[in-house]
Amino acid sequence: MPGINPLPMKRIQEFFDFTRHTEKKIFISLAALFLILMPLLSLKSGISADEDKYHYPHGKNVYKYYTTMGKDRTCLKPHKQNEPPLEMYGAVFDVSTVIANKILKPHDEYQVRHIMNSMAGWTAILFAGLVAVMLGGWRAGIITMLLMFLSPRLLGHSYNNPKDIPFTATYIFTIWASIRFMRALNNQELLKHPMKVLNYSWPIALGIGLAIGVRVGGLLLAFYFLFFTGIGYLFQHSWKQWFKKVNLIRYTRILGIAVLIAVAGYAIGILLWPYAHEKPVQKTIEALNYMEKYGINMRQSFEGKMLWSNNMPWYYLPKFILITVPEVVLIGFLSLFFLHRSWKKENAPTYFFLLFVLIFPVFYIVYKDANLYGGWRHAMFVYPSMVVLAGMGIHRLLEKVRPQKYFHWGTLGILIILLALPLRHIIANHPNEYVYYNSLIGGIKGAYGDYEMDYFYNSQKAAADWLIENRIKDARLADGEKITVAMYLSMPYYFRDYKDKVKVIYVKYPNRGASDWDYYIMPSSYVHPQQLKLGLWPTTNTIHKIDVNGKTICAVFERKNRYDLEGTQQMQTRNLTNYYSAISLFKKALQEDPNYDYVQIRLTSCYFDLYSHWTASLKDYLVRSQEQGVTNQQVVDWLSDSITKYKDLSETACTRSLMLYPDHSIGLNVRAKMMYQEGNSQDAIRIHLKNLRVNPNYYIAYIELAQIMLDQKKYPEALKYLDDALNKVSDPNVVISIYYMAADIRDKQGLPQEAQSLRENARILSGQ
User: Residue 279: CB partners within 8 Å, gap ≥ 6?
Assistant: First the structure.
């Protein structure tokens, strides 16, 4: 027809003609499908652990830094103790979401963030596929993209992980660009055409810059690129040709170009990273050094124990990768090595490169004993390289068995079944896909109670949505009355449309009975592994559960009574009479829930305090009786009976509390003090030290150890424990008491001036 260009229509017809370039079209169609699916899947995801509190606010501060031309320096303020070093992070992704939200002005800003996060995940999937295409063609790319998408950990993190997923995307993009550059160098004509060199160079510089703009570790990509560009020369020539003048000249030019690319990448990264604007080299080194020994220390479930992240066994990372990667990826990865003879010679440098960027970071993290938590998300950037190699392994395996018709179809059938396993998990457990363990550990059921489940608190959104729909939306409240919702990770944003009805508070699960709340949303993270294994969690007051493969990862509790809170308030008065009221209230709470660990531990403390009180009363009475020369045996017997009674009750309660919560600091502290009062100082010291291994921040154990050392006249050891306590405590009243205790020790050491100085510090702190 006149006026209509037939070329576009012809191209569309050619695309849907699957007799031509079928595999390429499948690859493109699959990539397009994932580009549609992933943003849609992200819509139900929750706000991840650090997203609302740290990363998105930091992105807003960095946005202000750029829009004010560096005058607003909020984003450069040093981080507080036990908080992420936000100033040392780039904020490329977070700033991008700030800009998008300012343009779109959506009702839910986090949905926009999650859509963009999923597109970063899609980018990682696409470029992993494109790397595989370079190695084995379009079919290898199809297999690799399928493996990436059907990796539940990667897919789940793609929804709402604003650091690890963008970094993974920039990492594999830069690897793709680097491989593309290095393979093109085999073409002798490339260096004769500067524009061709530029076309192959700028993606590498951009990738390095974007990676640094997310995390300073992106700088490693520059070193990878330089290193492999350098040793690529060894692969291109036999050793006899290495020192030929013509080759050396060409190599020098190539290396010069590589250096320029790396420098350009670093410059882009610096532009995107405010922290390094003033002293780029110094700040880069500072950030790299800090990230090697990350300052935040968190408790994590690993192998059935609650361990601190800076004290994990060396194999934490490799084991977590092994038990959370789909079986089909592991099989494909191993297959590649069994079929190494089928590698094409020209692909050897690329295989070597992929293996290096996969293995070296893992090895380096293990070697440096890096602080890891939340599984292996911090090392997720190595995963696309692993999947590319796995995809190539499956690709080569299918090629190997193709001549044998039945064996070929059998192998294909097994692979389809293996792919169906993670697909089923994804469909059944959306949007909590990332809570995934493979059959090597027995799946979710095998890992439950031994390993982390919902570390990112993704499931809190579904719990909050249920609570709104079933308890809050239609609730009729008096003027000024609000429903108090407690959360382990406080997330008021979920209740932003119900601010007139809801008050959201942060409550730690072990101390939940000490706060006033109506409903409590609690993921399984930070629930003691033994409670999960014994079925003590979720508790009897659960009204809704979020499950993954039949195992609860988040629960909504409804407060049926306030015996726990009222008992705690009575106990906090430190009045002896009120202790008996507290005990009565705690017993009522235990009648409602015999496995209520918080109440059992507080009851243990009550009994022990009464035992200590009557023990001290008997000692005082005997001293006064000796002074007066008159002793009433009935009083002695009554006090002795009270001591025996509360000693037995405290021992029974302590045993029960440690059964419900084996590592609870208060329970262990009471057990150690009981041991010491009975004259068993060695066991008391052992239990206190165990308490500190479980919770290094429990300063009370340091003070108790100092008291034991003081009683044993081991003054230097006592002072050391008091110094340790001072490093952990923030309560000024406790600091004052430590100063006075240290002063007494200095007096006993015959150092009155130092003792006087400590007492003076205590008086100044107390305002006297």
Answer: none
The answer to whether 528 touches 457, Cβ cutoff 8 Å, is no
Task: Please give the structure tokens belonging to residue 272.
Answer: 């995107």
Report which secondary-structure segment, H or E, holds 542. strand 542-548
Q: What's the pLDDT at 10?
A: 58
Which amino acid appears at position 450 of this protein? D
Q: What is the mean pLDDT of the chain?
A: 89
**Backbone φ, ψ for residue 107 (5° rounding):** -70, -35
Alpha carbon separation from 721 to 176, 285, 708, 715, 756 (Å, rounded): 54, 34, 10, 10, 20
Buried b (16+ CB within 10 A) or exposed e, 192-207: eeeeebeebbebbbbb
Residue 341 has pLDDT above 70, yes or no: no
Three-class DSSP category at 283: helix
DSSP state of 78: P
User: Is residue 80 a contact partner of residue 463, using CB atoms and an 8 Å limit?
Assistant: no
Q: How far is the C-alpha of 307 from the C-alpha of 311, rounded, in Å?
A: 7
Which range among 193-207, 297-311, 648-662 has the greatest average pLDDT? 648-662
End-to-end CA distance of the chain: 98
Residue 53's nearest CA partner among 92, 115, 110 is 110
Supply the pLDDT for residue 418.
93
Overall average pLDDT of the 387-414 stretch:
86
Query: How far is Cα of residue 640 from the mean position of the Cα atoms in its chain?
Result: 52
- The CA distance from 144 to 165, in Å, is 17
Encoded tokens for 755: 């003792």
One-letter amino acid at 429 equals N
pLDDT-based confidence at 745, cuts 50/70/90? very high
Q: Flag whether pLDDT at 17 surpasses 50.
A: no
Q: CA-CA distance, 377 to 151, in Å (whole number)?
A: 13
Token code pair at residue 618: 């008997």
